[in-house]
Amino acid sequence: MNDIEKQQNKGFFGWIERVGNKLPDPVMLFIILAAIVIVISGIAGATGLSVEYFDAEEGENLTVEAVSLFSAGGLNHIFNSAVDNFTGFAPLGTVLVAMLGVGVAEWTGLIVSTLKRLLSNVPAFLLSAAVIFAGIISNIASDVGYVVIIPLGALIFAGAGRHPLAGLAAAFAGVSSGFSANLLIGPTDALLVDITNAALNSAGINYEMSITANWYFMIVSSVVLTIVGALITDKFVEPRLGEYKGDYRPDFESLTDIERKGLRNSLIVLIIYVVIMAFLMFPQGAVFRSFDEAIGAESINDFLSTGLLLAIFLLFALPGLAYGLTVGKIKNSSDFVKGMTEAMSSMGNYIVLAFFAAQLIDYFEFTNLGTILAVSGADLLESIHLTGLPLVLGFIVVAGFINLFIGSASAKWAILAPIFAPMLYNLDIAPEMTLIAYRIADSSTNVISPLLNYFPMILIFAQRYDNKAGIGTLVSTMLAYSMAFLVTWSLLLVIWFLFGLPIGPGASIAL
Fold this sequence. Notes:
- The structure is a single chain.
- By secondary structure, the chain is mainly α.
- It has one domain (3-499).
- It is 69% helix and 4% strand.
- It is built from 22 helices and 4 strands.
- It has a two-stranded antiparallel sheet.
- Helix 9 (144-159) packs antiparallel against helix 10 (164-177), helix 19 (409-425) runs antiparallel to helix 20 (431-444) and helix 20 runs antiparallel to helix 22.
């Protein structure tokens, strides 16, 4: 073992990596976890475990009981839902469609040539910050950042002669741990604000939050998290990873004349495509605009949520096609298809992993164990009778822990909002502040949860550059970002709380 490997194995993070990597293959681990959920559900069902909470949408108290997968209904669910769980697994289609386009751009050489052109003499900190920031602002397009920014982060770092896993980690941190921060208002804002307003109204509180309720705070958060993430990448993650010794070695040779011509032609195609898409998206009455009830006007939020993925495919495929035709990589239709086929061939492990991950996530939801955990955690915090800032910080800790088991931001908030939004309102803490605390908790711990929908995909991407990378490698690498973002973001909230700064247009921390 050399000095770098000894350094990597030291300390708390080294211990996490060693223990995590000694776990079975990720596929087997998901099978084992699914089996554990089945056993726990059987015990919980037999003992009649249940919780009661107020459902804002239904306007009534609901009793949620643990559902046993050992029961007749449970066993039927296991067998009858397996295919639907797999085909309906949200990240599966997202990842595969995006990778079709990225595969064309990568196979033709467009991505490598672009990186060679752009990455010469870029300062390390600036490159890290750019990857983090791109990940943060990508959440305006929902989950697209997971399948575009994260693999590109690894390629960008590799193209700059840096460790690709550090680039992947930086992008993952920006996309997932910085999910709620942004410079713009997006679908997530509308969704969470709607749930909060419904929770308040159901408790008889006449209060209406606007979609811009957290805007000022999230703009500042985007800048702060970018700086913190870049520092973690450059000062901790990359030094700990050490020198890259994997098989992926991008060509660092200077661009040839034909490659420059290919870049020029692909840029022309890209500009034409962007202009067409802008015409379809932004003018009043444009094809991709629809009425958004959350803001009472036309918006492209529906397109961003459901239609953007095909647009991303074309964003990579069309310039990739132009580049491939120019440099001679694509000579006929078969070559074009080959680029997509090779991209799909590299996703075989992910498809297998996705099948079992989808079953685990479904079992956890079907048994109601996640809901029971969330309500129990909320009840525990409520019973402590904290007030003011300690209550807000305690809420962040509890919600961050629950986030490890329930990945959906809206599903979690639908459970927690009817409890915490009215409770903190009655303690003179504005719902806008409560929502900020929730968004901090919901984002920061995403990257260390194996139950995150996209976690299996990130692991497969990591193994592309280091075939020895396991869950321990990924969790130990991402834990530094999770801790740093959670602490920094919470401190930022404390500053806002103590100085009474405006959170958004017309929104403050206290009533």
